[in-house]
Design brief:
17% strand; alpha/beta; Rossmann fold; globular; three-stranded parallel β-sheet
Protein backbone atom coordinates (compact mmCIF):
# COMPACT_ATOMS: atom_id res chain seq x y z
CA UNK A 1 0.00 0.00 0.00
CA UNK A 2 1.26 3.46 -0.96
CA UNK A 3 -0.13 6.48 0.84
CA UNK A 4 -1.25 9.29 -1.48
CA UNK A 5 0.29 12.08 0.56
CA UNK A 6 -1.65 15.23 -0.24
CA UNK A 7 0.24 17.27 2.33
CA UNK A 8 3.61 16.54 0.74
CA UNK A 9 2.35 16.86 -2.84
CA UNK A 10 0.54 20.14 -2.18
CA UNK A 11 3.76 21.57 -0.75
CA UNK A 12 5.57 20.62 -3.95
CA UNK A 13 2.89 22.44 -5.96
CA UNK A 14 3.10 25.56 -3.78
CA UNK A 15 6.88 25.58 -4.19
CA UNK A 16 6.45 25.43 -7.97
CA UNK A 17 3.91 28.27 -7.91
CA UNK A 18 6.15 30.36 -5.67
CA UNK A 19 8.98 30.03 -8.17
CA UNK A 20 6.71 31.02 -11.08
CA UNK A 21 5.37 34.04 -9.17
CA UNK A 22 8.90 35.15 -8.41
CA UNK A 23 9.71 35.08 -12.13
CA UNK A 24 6.53 37.03 -12.92
CA UNK A 25 7.43 39.77 -10.46
CA UNK A 26 11.03 39.90 -11.67
CA UNK A 27 9.75 40.44 -15.22
CA UNK A 28 7.74 43.45 -14.04
CA UNK A 29 4.30 41.84 -13.96
CA UNK A 30 1.85 42.15 -11.08
CA UNK A 31 1.45 39.53 -8.40
CA UNK A 32 -1.62 37.31 -8.76
CA UNK A 33 -4.38 38.50 -6.43
CA UNK A 34 -6.95 36.18 -4.87
CA UNK A 35 -9.93 37.58 -2.98
CA UNK A 36 -12.28 35.64 -0.74
CA UNK A 37 -15.80 36.61 0.28
CA UNK A 38 -16.85 35.24 3.66
CA UNK A 39 -20.47 35.57 4.73
CA UNK A 40 -21.26 35.00 8.40
CA UNK A 41 -19.19 33.23 11.05
CA UNK A 42 -19.25 29.54 10.13
CA UNK A 43 -16.27 28.06 12.00
CA UNK A 44 -15.23 25.62 9.25
CA UNK A 45 -15.50 28.35 6.60
CA UNK A 46 -13.38 30.77 8.65
CA UNK A 47 -10.70 28.10 9.16
CA UNK A 48 -10.66 27.22 5.46
CA UNK A 49 -10.52 30.84 4.26
CA UNK A 50 -7.70 31.64 6.69
CA UNK A 51 -5.76 28.65 5.36
CA UNK A 52 -6.22 29.95 1.81
CA UNK A 53 -4.89 33.35 2.84
CA UNK A 54 -1.81 31.70 4.39
CA UNK A 55 -1.30 29.75 1.16
CA UNK A 56 -1.40 33.03 -0.78
CA UNK A 57 1.27 34.54 1.46
CA UNK A 58 3.47 31.47 1.05
CA UNK A 59 3.39 31.45 -2.76
CA UNK A 60 3.70 35.22 -3.12
CA UNK A 61 0.13 36.11 -4.10
CA UNK A 62 -1.66 39.22 -2.92
CA UNK A 63 -4.87 38.38 -1.10
CA UNK A 64 -7.87 40.17 0.34
CA UNK A 65 -10.76 39.08 2.51
CA UNK A 66 -14.24 40.55 2.24
CA UNK A 67 -16.23 39.83 5.41
CA UNK A 68 -19.99 40.25 5.36
CA UNK A 69 -22.54 39.56 8.12
CA UNK A 70 -24.92 36.63 7.78
CA UNK A 71 -27.72 39.20 7.59
CA UNK A 72 -26.44 40.49 4.23
CA UNK A 73 -29.11 40.40 1.55
CA UNK A 74 -28.76 38.51 -1.70
CA UNK A 75 -28.79 41.82 -3.59
CA UNK A 76 -26.02 43.28 -1.40
CA UNK A 77 -23.87 40.19 -1.92
CA UNK A 78 -24.36 40.36 -5.69
CA UNK A 79 -23.34 44.04 -5.60
CA UNK A 80 -20.11 43.08 -3.82
CA UNK A 81 -19.47 40.35 -6.40
CA UNK A 82 -20.01 42.90 -9.18
CA UNK A 83 -17.37 45.15 -7.56
CA UNK A 84 -14.88 42.27 -7.57
CA UNK A 85 -15.77 41.40 -11.17
CA UNK A 86 -14.88 44.95 -12.20
CA UNK A 87 -11.76 45.29 -10.01
CA UNK A 88 -8.75 44.87 -12.32
CA UNK A 89 -6.44 44.32 -9.33
CA UNK A 90 -8.26 41.09 -8.44
CA UNK A 91 -7.41 38.18 -10.74
CA UNK A 92 -9.73 35.65 -9.16
CA UNK A 93 -12.07 35.31 -6.22
CA UNK A 94 -14.19 32.83 -4.34
CA UNK A 95 -17.42 33.14 -2.41
CA UNK A 96 -17.00 30.68 0.44
CA UNK A 97 -19.80 28.13 0.70
CA UNK A 98 -22.14 27.34 2.38
CA UNK A 99 -24.11 30.58 2.38
CA UNK A 100 -27.00 31.52 4.72
CA UNK A 101 -30.31 29.89 3.79
CA UNK A 102 -31.91 33.11 2.57
CA UNK A 103 -29.31 33.41 -0.21
CA UNK A 104 -29.63 31.40 -3.42
CA UNK A 105 -26.20 29.85 -4.00
CA UNK A 106 -26.86 29.23 -7.70
CA UNK A 107 -27.64 32.91 -8.29
CA UNK A 108 -24.46 33.90 -6.48
CA UNK A 109 -22.29 31.50 -8.48
CA UNK A 110 -23.82 32.73 -11.75
CA UNK A 111 -23.07 36.35 -10.75
CA UNK A 112 -19.31 35.66 -10.71
CA UNK A 113 -17.32 36.56 -13.84
CA UNK A 114 -16.36 33.14 -15.33
CA UNK A 115 -12.84 34.51 -15.97
CA UNK A 116 -12.44 35.15 -12.23
CA UNK A 117 -14.26 32.03 -11.04
CA UNK A 118 -11.26 30.21 -9.59
CA UNK A 119 -13.55 27.78 -7.73
CA UNK A 120 -14.69 26.56 -11.15
CA UNK A 121 -18.39 26.44 -10.24
CA UNK A 122 -19.82 28.85 -12.84
CA UNK A 123 -21.90 27.10 -15.55
CA UNK A 124 -19.54 28.46 -18.21
CA UNK A 125 -16.55 26.78 -16.58
CA UNK A 126 -18.48 23.56 -15.96
CA UNK A 127 -19.37 23.54 -19.67
CA UNK A 128 -15.79 24.23 -20.73
CA UNK A 129 -14.61 21.39 -18.49
CA UNK A 130 -17.16 19.01 -20.03
CA UNK A 131 -16.00 19.99 -23.54
CA UNK A 132 -12.33 19.71 -22.55
CA UNK A 133 -11.75 23.41 -23.30
CA UNK A 134 -9.42 25.69 -21.32
CA UNK A 135 -11.01 26.99 -18.15
CA UNK A 136 -11.16 26.56 -14.40
CA UNK A 137 -11.66 23.03 -13.11
CA UNK A 138 -13.28 22.80 -9.64
CA UNK A 139 -10.50 22.72 -7.06
CA UNK A 140 -11.21 19.36 -5.39
CA UNK A 141 -11.43 17.32 -8.62
CA UNK A 142 -8.41 19.23 -9.97
CA UNK A 143 -6.46 18.37 -6.83
CA UNK A 144 -7.38 14.70 -7.17
CA UNK A 145 -6.16 14.62 -10.77
CA UNK A 146 -2.85 16.17 -9.69
CA UNK A 147 -2.46 13.49 -7.02
CA UNK A 148 -3.14 10.71 -9.53
CA UNK A 149 -0.71 12.25 -12.03
CA UNK A 150 2.13 12.84 -9.59
CA UNK A 151 1.94 9.27 -8.26
CA UNK A 152 1.87 7.92 -11.84
CA UNK A 153 -1.31 5.93 -11.24
CA UNK A 154 -2.50 4.13 -14.36
CA UNK A 155 -6.01 5.19 -15.39
CA UNK A 156 -6.22 4.08 -19.03
CA UNK A 157 -8.99 1.49 -19.43
CA UNK A 158 -9.62 1.24 -15.70
CA UNK A 159 -13.05 1.05 -14.11
CA UNK A 160 -13.52 4.16 -11.97
CA UNK A 161 -16.44 4.21 -9.55
CA UNK A 162 -17.46 7.58 -8.10
CA UNK A 163 -19.60 7.55 -4.97
CA UNK A 164 -21.67 10.74 -4.71
CA UNK A 165 -22.98 13.04 -7.45
CA UNK A 166 -22.51 16.54 -6.01
CA UNK A 167 -21.85 19.39 -8.43
CA UNK A 168 -18.67 20.24 -6.51
CA UNK A 169 -16.96 16.82 -6.51
CA UNK A 170 -18.81 13.74 -7.78
CA UNK A 171 -20.23 14.93 -11.09
CA UNK A 172 -17.12 16.83 -12.26
CA UNK A 173 -14.65 14.09 -11.33
CA UNK A 174 -16.80 11.55 -13.20
CA UNK A 175 -16.49 13.71 -16.33
CA UNK A 176 -12.76 14.26 -15.88
CA UNK A 177 -11.94 10.58 -15.32
CA UNK A 178 -13.75 9.68 -18.56
CA UNK A 179 -12.08 12.30 -20.77
CA UNK A 180 -9.68 11.30 -23.54
CA UNK A 181 -6.49 12.30 -21.72
CA UNK A 182 -4.32 11.39 -18.76
CA UNK A 183 -5.50 11.18 -16.04
CA UNK A 184 -8.63 9.78 -17.66
CA UNK A 185 -9.71 7.25 -20.27
CA UNK A 186 -11.57 5.36 -17.56
CA UNK A 187 -14.89 3.61 -17.82
CA UNK A 188 -16.79 5.56 -15.17
CA UNK A 189 -19.75 4.53 -13.03
CA UNK A 190 -21.35 7.35 -11.03
CA UNK A 191 -23.25 5.99 -8.02
CA UNK A 192 -25.70 7.74 -5.70
CA UNK A 193 -28.50 7.12 -3.18
CA UNK A 194 -30.73 5.43 -5.79
CA UNK A 195 -28.05 3.08 -7.11
CA UNK A 196 -28.86 -0.63 -6.87
CA UNK A 197 -26.17 -3.27 -6.28
CA UNK A 198 -24.04 -0.52 -4.74
CA UNK A 199 -21.65 -2.80 -2.87
CA UNK A 200 -21.02 -4.98 -5.92
CA UNK A 201 -20.32 -1.91 -8.06
CA UNK A 202 -17.83 -0.55 -5.51
CA UNK A 203 -16.05 -3.90 -5.39
CA UNK A 204 -15.65 -3.86 -9.18
CA UNK A 205 -13.73 -0.55 -9.08
CA UNK A 206 -10.08 -0.32 -10.03
CA UNK A 207 -10.26 3.30 -8.85
CA UNK A 208 -12.79 4.16 -6.15
CA UNK A 209 -13.48 7.85 -5.48
CA UNK A 210 -15.70 8.45 -2.46
CA UNK A 211 -17.41 11.78 -1.77
CA UNK A 212 -20.39 10.74 0.30
CA UNK A 213 -20.11 12.54 3.64
CA UNK A 214 -20.80 9.40 5.69
CA UNK A 215 -17.96 8.50 8.08
CA UNK A 216 -16.23 5.16 7.41
CA UNK A 217 -19.10 4.01 5.19
CA UNK A 218 -16.91 2.08 2.72
CA UNK A 219 -15.84 -1.19 4.35
CA UNK A 220 -13.13 -3.70 3.48
CA UNK A 221 -15.55 -6.14 1.85
CA UNK A 222 -16.72 -3.39 -0.54
CA UNK A 223 -13.24 -2.83 -1.98
CA UNK A 224 -11.41 -4.75 -4.68
CA UNK A 225 -7.93 -6.06 -3.83
CA UNK A 226 -5.30 -3.72 -5.31
CA UNK A 227 -7.76 -0.87 -5.92
CA UNK A 228 -6.86 2.82 -5.75
CA UNK A 229 -8.90 4.67 -3.12
CA UNK A 230 -9.42 8.44 -3.09
CA UNK A 231 -11.40 9.53 -0.04
CA UNK A 232 -12.90 13.02 -0.20
CA UNK A 233 -14.98 12.73 2.98
CA UNK A 234 -14.04 14.44 6.23
CA UNK A 235 -16.13 14.14 9.39
CA UNK A 236 -15.55 14.71 13.09
CA UNK A 237 -16.67 11.73 15.17
CA UNK A 238 -16.75 11.65 18.99
CA UNK A 239 -13.71 10.03 20.60
CA UNK A 240 -13.22 10.34 24.36
CA UNK A 241 -9.62 9.10 24.07
CA UNK A 242 -8.66 12.28 22.21
CA UNK A 243 -7.89 15.55 23.97
CA UNK A 244 -10.18 17.34 21.52
CA UNK A 245 -12.99 14.88 22.21
CA UNK A 246 -13.19 13.85 18.56
CA UNK A 247 -11.22 12.32 15.70
CA UNK A 248 -11.34 13.14 12.01
CA UNK A 249 -12.26 10.33 9.62
CA UNK A 250 -13.10 9.94 5.96
CA UNK A 251 -15.84 8.08 4.12
CA UNK A 252 -13.62 4.98 3.95
CA UNK A 253 -12.80 2.72 6.91
CA UNK A 254 -9.11 3.48 6.46
CA UNK A 255 -7.59 1.11 9.05
CA UNK A 256 -9.51 -1.90 7.74
CA UNK A 257 -9.14 -1.06 4.04
CA UNK A 258 -5.53 0.14 3.76
CA UNK A 259 -3.83 -3.28 3.63
CA UNK A 260 -6.09 -4.45 0.79
CA UNK A 261 -5.40 -1.62 -1.67
CA UNK A 262 -2.51 -0.35 -3.80
CA UNK A 263 -2.95 3.40 -3.16
CA UNK A 264 -5.08 5.28 -0.64
CA UNK A 265 -5.48 8.87 0.57
CA UNK A 266 -5.33 9.52 4.31
CA UNK A 267 -7.89 11.68 6.10
CA UNK A 268 -6.80 14.26 7.01
CA UNK A 269 -3.79 14.98 4.80
CA UNK A 270 -5.03 13.61 1.50
CA UNK A 271 -7.52 15.43 -0.72
CA UNK A 272 -7.94 18.49 1.54
CA UNK A 273 -4.46 19.98 1.03
CA UNK A 274 -4.69 19.21 -2.70
CA UNK A 275 -7.91 21.22 -2.97
CA UNK A 276 -6.15 24.28 -1.57
CA UNK A 277 -3.14 23.75 -3.86
CA UNK A 278 -5.46 23.49 -6.87
CA UNK A 279 -7.07 26.80 -5.93
CA UNK A 280 -3.61 28.40 -6.02
CA UNK A 281 -3.06 26.84 -9.47
CA UNK A 282 -6.37 28.25 -10.69
CA UNK A 283 -5.50 31.70 -9.36
CA UNK A 284 -2.22 31.66 -11.24
CA UNK A 285 -4.12 30.52 -14.33
CA UNK A 286 -6.46 33.50 -13.93
CA UNK A 287 -3.56 35.85 -14.71
CA UNK A 288 -3.22 34.27 -18.16
CA UNK A 289 -5.43 34.41 -21.24
CA UNK A 290 -7.04 31.15 -22.42
Amino acid sequence: MILLDGKKTSQEIRDEIKEEVSKLVESGKKRPHLAAVLVGANGASITYVNAKIRDCEEVGFDSSLVKLPDTVTEEELIEKIDELNKNDEVDGFIVQLPLPRHINEKKIIEAIDPNKDVDGFHPTNVGRMALNLPGFVPATPKGMLELIKRYNIETNGKHCVVVGRSHIVGSPISILMAKNAYPGNCTVTLTHSRTTNFKEICKSADILIVALGKPEYIKKEMVKKGAVIIDVGITRVPDSSKKSGYRIVGDVDFDKVKDKVSFITPVPGGVGPMTRAALMQNTLLATKVW
